[in-house]
Amino acid sequence: MDLFRKIPKHEDARIAIEMGFYPYFIPISGEQGPTLEINGKNMIMLGSNNYLGLTNHPEVKESAKKAIEKYGVGCTGSRFLNGTLDIHVELEEKLADFMGMESALIFSTGFQTNLGTISSMMTKDDFILSDSFNHASIIDGCRIAKGNSIIYKHNDLESLKAAFNSIPEKAGTLVATDGLFSMEGDFARLPEIIKMAKEHDSRVMVDDAHAIGVYGKRGRGTTEHFGVEADIIMGTFSKSLASIGGFVASTEEVIFHLKHSARPLIFSASPPPAAIATVSKALDIVMEEPERRSELMKNAEYFRNSLKKMGYNIGLSESQIIPVIVGDLMETVGLWKSLYDYDVFTNPVLYPATPPERSLIRNSIMSTHSMEDLDQALETYEKIGRDMGII
């Protein structure tokens, strides 16, 4: 049979496009700040991971321009061969120092970072224990790794304990967890997870994509927030650090191993100079302007409490990521479309990104949102929620 005849038709998506209810691949005209422009309309942006508002910071943009002038627009090769510039190495040293780790390694995307790290660390006799709400990049890293994967229930320490007890005594073990879960907005129970891992001679890897720059006294993420140490910390550049790419920080031995074994690193083109310069300057601002974190926390708490007071189900959110859990898929899309029509941009999260019965609207708050922005969005949420009978 012709392979193309087997391709799924995605009829639901096509119907949604025809009816004007398709929530994906919406073209944005211009910068993504607390507001943005779509089809000539100015909208409040509650769907961005630009938590600290650095993607349009003038110093960050100027650093990117200077990097292009000096290095050009690309590296034309992988880090392994001709794609390593002096600024890649400088940023890795800077990231290692910032994270309080011996060494760091930059990948072209955050997804590749998890994919390459997890698959390179595991042998066929090893085990990786993964939270059921982990990011897709961790899930896929587990799938291609040679070791054995065990999924434990989300933030359930008894489930994690049972997983540990099922592993052969001599097997190498890695616990992989998001530090801050990207859909639910809740934190991993890192102090308990790390304590349990030590008791079982296991290593711990934390994906801190949504927490680096945001949590901890210096912005190091959830480990600093909780006052604990992990063996491997992964971060991305596409959230608070205003660019694209990812990194992993650990011991020198682990990083040296990844440099010579992580296929997504070895066989991918290097992050371009402008992206690296952007991250470096954004990292400077994270360290120099802690008030951005304070403002973000204030905005997030205000928005969370306001939605909860209205009667919305925001789950266990305790961060700048605030879900509105609707449950029914069609009702979720209807809420998204109504918000969109009232100039509030949000992200609908549907299966398989969330369990089928847990469809939700994901709201992401920024430090640069004004109270007027948040109040306008909240007024819209209240009106639509009452009209739809959700609250």
In short:
This protein is of the alpha/beta class. The chain has helices at residues 11-19, 58-71, 86-99, 110-121, 136-144, 157-165, 190-199, 222-226, 252-259, 263-266, 273-288, 291-310, 329-341, 371-388, and strands at 35-38, 41-45, 103-107, 127-131, 148-152, 173-178, 203-207, 232-236, 246-250, 321-327, 344-345, 347-349, 359-364.
Question: What does this molecule look like?
Answer:
- The chain has 14 helices and 13 strands.
- The protein is of the alpha/beta class and 391 residues long.
- The protein has two domains: 3-56 and 290-388, Aspartate Aminotransferase, domain 1; 58-288, Aspartate Aminotransferase, domain 2.
- Helix 2 runs antiparallel to helix 11 (273-288), helix 6 (157-165) runs parallel beside helix 7 (190-199) and helix 12 (291-310) packs parallel to helix 14 (371-388).
Under the CATH scheme, which class of the largest domain? Answer: Alpha Beta
Low-confidence stretches: none
- The side-by-side strand order for the widest beta sheet comes to 3-9-8-7-6-4-5
Q: What's the average pLDDT?
A: 96
Q: Distance N terminus to C terminus?
A: 51 Å
Measured as a percent range, the helix fraction is: 40-55%
Query: Could you say what the CATH architecture of the largest domain is?
Result: 3-Layer(aba) Sandwich
CATH superfamily membership of the largest domain: Type I PLP-dependent aspartate aminotransferase-like (Major domain)
Q: List how many beta strands DSSP finds.
A: 13
In the CATH hierarchy, the third-tier topology of the largest domain is known as Aspartate Aminotransferase, domain 2
Total helical segments: 14
